[in-house]
Amino acid sequence: MELSFTQGRWNYESWGGFDPISSSNAKPPGVELWAVFDVPQHHIDASWKNLTHTLSGLFCASINFLESTATYSTPEWSFPPASGNVRYGTLPCEAVCTENLTPWLKLLPCRDKAGIALLLDRPSLYRGFYHSQRGRCVLAKSSSVYLLLDRGLVAELKFPNKENGKSAANGLTSENFWSNPSFELSVNPDRIFLEESSSHSKSLSILYMFQVEKYSESEPFDIGLMWKVPVAWLCQQTPLHASRFLMGSGNERGAIAISLKSTQFTEGFMSANSKDGSCELRVDVFQVVPWYVKVYFHSLRVFVDQQPRAVSDFIEKIHVSPSKDKMSPGVMEVVLKLPCRVNTAALTIEFDKGFLRIDEYPPDANQGFDIPSAIISFPNFHASMVFLEDDSLNRSPLLSKFQEKCPVMSYTEVLLVPLTTPDFSMPYNVITIKCTVFALYFGSLLNVLQRRVAEEERFLKAKAAKKTGRLPLLLSKLSAKLRGSGINQD
Amino acid sequence: METFINPKSLFHLLLLPCLLLYSSIAYNSSPVEAAMHTNNWAVLVCTSRFWFNYRHMANTLSLYRTVKRLGIPDERIILMLADDMACNTRNKYPAQVFNNENHRLNLYGDNVEVDYRGYEVTVENFLRVLTGRHETAVPRSKRLLSDEGSHILLYMTGHGGDEFLKFQDSEELQSHDLADAVKQMKEKHRFKELLIMVDTCQAATLFNQSPGVLAIGSSMKGENSYSHHLDSDVGVSVVDRFTYYTLAFFERLNIYDNASLSSLFSSYNPSLLMSTAYYRKDLYKRRLEEVPVTNFFGSVMETIHTDAAYKALSRRNSGRFEDEMSLDQSVHHIKRRMLIKVNDGDEIHDINPELLQGEEGASKCPWSTFRKKFQKAENVDSLLNYGLVAMIPLLVISTWLVQ
C-alpha cells in the first residue's frame, strides 16, 4: 500500500525525471493512494472502503471520499504487480497541511523533538514549491544524510564548459575532495559511493554520506555547500516530456490532449541505439477520468510529429473501461510504440460534459472539477542507481531503494474542467415565490368566503359602546383605526 | 354491590399504573444525576468556507488551542474545519493562522489534528457526530465517544441568522434540528452536561429550542456579531469580537486556576462586543459561581488516592469503598480547593461530615440511616421501590374493605 500527500507539482524540466528520486518519489498533487489486496475478489470493495476510512481518520484528510465508486479504479498494466487486486484512487485538490504531518510524526519514537525531524519547521516546509510525504517507512538504526551529485552535475564538473580548463575529475573522489575548484563542502563526508554503471548516460553519479551520530551538541552537524563558480547543469530527464491540457471551449464539450515531446535524453539515446531503424520506444499511458467528463473513446487520435496518423499504427494495446454515470470513472490504458526518432507525439480524445444533480455539486462548484493526473511510464527504462558498496551487510535502506528496478514514471498535470453550474439560490427562490402565491390565493379566498364586513363593524360599535373609561375608548379607537375599519363617532 | 365496587376498584386500578409510571420516570432520571463526571469532550465546528471567512477559522482554532492548553487531549476533541486557511495559497504565512494583528500566537501550531476537513463538514456529518450514528467504517477518531459522565463543549461559529446556521454556503442547520439532536443525546445519555457556545449573527436563536443545556451566544435576535479587527498584513479580519474577548479571558488562566463560569459570562461587555452576549441557564441546576470553567473548557479531574488496589466493584459499592478510604485521607487532606470539586466531590462533601461524626452513628439508629439514605440523591430509586412495595398492601386492604 502506498499513500502520498503532495503539494505542488514536480518540475520535470528543471528537476529531472530519470533518477529514482523523481521517478518513484515525485507524486501527483493532492492525495494518492494505491493498494494491493490479498483477499478474495468480492471482498476487495469492502476492504477498500475500510482502508480509506481508517486512513482518513489516521491522517486527518478526506481520504474517505475515495471510497465512493466515483474515484477508484483498477489498473491493469501500469502498476507492478499487475493483477486484479490493485485499487488506485487520487484526490487532486486535497489540501496538505500541518495536520497531515502530525500523524507521521507521531509514528516516530521521538516525534519532532529529536533527530532529523527537528528540521521540519512547519512554516518553511509549507512555503516551498513542492513537498511530499509518502508512507513507506523503514526504521533505521542510525541516521545518515546523503548528498547526491546528479549525473548531469558530475558531467558538468568533470568536463566544464567554462574557461576553467583544469579538470576537477580527480577532485571529487579523492581524499581532499573539498578543495576542488567548483564547490566547497563545510563537512567532509564519511563515505563516498560511486555509481557502478549507467546504461543511459556517460557520467556516473556520486553519493556522499554523512553519519549524523558522530556529531553531538558540542559539535553540531551543519552541512553547507558553497559554489565557487556558477555551475549550471541539466538533470537527466525522462525520454519524453509529458504534458496534458484541455482543448475546446464552452460548457458542453471539449477534448483532452496528452503531448509528448522529446528531450535531450532522446537524442543521446538515439545516438546510442542507432543500429537499425526499427528501434521503438514504448510508452504506457494510464488515465482515469471521472464520470461527469464523458470521454468518447472512439475519438482517440494519434499525432506523430504533428501529422495525424492511424491509431493502429502506433497503439499496440489499449484497455478501456467506460464510465458509468454516477457509478464508476472511465479508465484508459494505452501502450504506445513510438519510433525512437520521434520529435513530438500527441494523443487527443474528445469528451462531453455531464450533468450533475443539485446535491452532487460541491459547495464551491464554481471553481470547477478536477481530472486527476495521468501516469506516463516508460517500461523500457529503469530508473535505478546501483552504487558500489564495500560491506553488503550494512546495506543502508536508501541505497537498496535506489537499486530497485522500477520503470521511469512521470505524472502529468491535473486538469480543471468547468462544468455547468446552476443558480443555487433557485430552489429557495422557487419555494418562497410559490408559498407566497399560495398564501395570497388562499388568504384572499378565505377572506372572501368567511369575512362579513358589516357584522364586524357592528361588533366593534357594540364594544365601543360598552367601554366606559376614556382611555379604553381611545385605545379601541386607535386599534380600530389601525385595523382599517372606521368607527363612527356619535 | 357492583355499583359500589366499580368506581373504587377502577380508582385503585388506575392508581397502580400511575404509580408505576411515576416510579419509572423517576428511576429513569435518577441514574443521570447520580453519574460521576468522568471526562470532557469538545466539538469545535467552523462552518465557513472561502478566504474572507478567515476569522471563523481563527475563532475555532483559538478555542482549540485554549481547550488543548487547559487539558483536553486530541482524542477527545472533534475539530471540524470547513476549509483550509493555513496552507491556502492566499495565505502569506503558510501553516500559520493568527487571531491577532501582532501575530503573537500561531494558532495552527505543530500538533493540530483536524477530524473533519473541507467538504466533510456538512450538516449530516455534524448531526451524526452529535447523535453518534455513524456508518460502521467511520474511524474512532471521528466519533464522539462520550458517555453519561461527560461534559461536552460544543462551539459553533460561522454565518448564521434567525434560528439557523449556514454550513459552507450551501446548506443550513436549523435550531430545531439542533434541538432534536440534543434531545437524542440526552435520551441516549451521551452527556452529563452540555455547554453550547455560538458565535454567529443572532446566535441566541440557534439554541432557543434546546432544552436542559447551558448555552451562550454572542448576540441576540436581531443583532449582528462583528469581527474585531482587520489585519492588513494577512488582508482579512482575523477574529470575531466574542471569541476575542473569550480568548482574552482564557489567556489569563492556566490549568490550575479556578475561575468560574459566571465570571466568564459576566466578562462580556456589550459595548465592546457591539452585541449582547446572551446566555441561558434556565434548566441548569447548579449555580454558575460554583462551576469552574475547566469543567467544560479544560480537563481538570479530582484524583482520589487509594492505598490499596481496588477491585472492579459496582458503581455504588465503589463509591462507598472510596468513602472509607477517603475517611483516612480526609484527616490529612483537609485543605482542598473548594471549586475544583466536581460532582463526585459533592458526594464526598456530603458524606464526609457524616463519616467524621463517626461510623458508629451509621449503624445505631435505623431512623437516622433511613433519613441519611433519604437525603442522598442516588438512593431515590431504591426509596421509590420501597414506597411501591409499601403501597401494595395498602391497595390490597382498600380493595378488601370495599368488598
From TrEMBL, chain A:
Cellular component terms (Gene Ontology): GPI-anchor transamidase complex
One Pfam family matching this protein: Gpi16
Descriptive protein name: GPI transamidase component PIG-T
Domain of life: Eukaryota
Species this protein is from: Gossypium barbadense
InterPro entries: PIG-T
GO BP terms in the entry: attachment of GPI anchor to protein
From TrEMBL, chain B:
Functional pathway: Glycolipid biosynthesis; glycosylphosphatidylinositol-anchor biosynthesis
Entry annotation: catalytic residues: 159, 201 (nucleophile)
Record's keyword annotation contains Signal: yes
Annotated transmembrane regions: 383-402
Keyword annotations from UniProtKB, A to Z: GPI-anchor biosynthesis, Membrane, Signal, Transmembrane, Transmembrane helix
Superkingdom classification of source: Eukaryota
Any GO MF annotation of the entry: GPI-anchor transamidase activity
Signal peptide residues on this chain, from the entry's feature table: 1-26
A Pfam family the protein falls into: Peptidase_C13
GO annotation, cellular component aspect: GPI-anchor transamidase complex
Keyword Lyase: no
BP terms from Gene Ontology: attachment of GPI anchor to protein; GPI anchor biosynthetic process; proteolysis
Similarity-based family: Belongs to the peptidase C13 family.
Name of the protein: GPI-anchor transamidase
UniProt source species: Gossypium barbadense
